[in-house]
Amino acid sequence: MSGSSGVFSQFRQIALAAYDRIVGLVLDHIVIDGSITKAPGGGEVAGRSPVDRGKQGLKRSGMTDGYGIPLGHVLAGANCHDSPLLASTPDRLVDLGPLPEDITVHLDAGYDSNKTRARLDERGQHGRIAHKGEKAPIQAGERWHVEWTHAWQNAFHRLVRCFERRAVVMEAFFDLADTIITVRSLIRRAWTTHRRQRRPRRRP
Q1: Taking the CA of residue 97 as centre, how many other CA atoms within 13 Å lie in the half-sphere pointing to its CB?
Q2: Which range marks the domain in which residue 158 is found?
């Protein structure tokens, strides 16, 4: 399966490159947030879930562009706080080639700390961070895009309830799921922007 994980990673990069060429990734706005799912079998990156009575769970720190296209993720135990994962999640951007000089990172109140702002400053990125103690809908910004993508990923049974124990296998399934999500989004958006003259106007 370790060889397959490399193949799935290549599939994901090909899908992202095709999407960027045809539609265009929105890279001046990046959205990052964590999501906790079940990991009944434990495993190399599982941990006690704070939202599931201490059962084994998996956290993914997911990153999307400004439309919700998955750009990468970091896997950790469910008991790991979102904020420390911010140090490594943006590193997944290096595979995308040249990036905009001005990038705004949208984060929820879980990242509201001076350490988070310092990390973003080190990268030359701006943070739009929800403030603790204030109602989220007022300052939700673009964060709903990553929630949308988490919901897409949770539609895959192997991700929302993961029985795999090896991290490399988990990464392979996430890469495959992200490839499918990206290709589906490409087809949906290109349906109206790249239309043949006789192409039907309604999706089959």
Answers
A1: 7
A2: 2-193
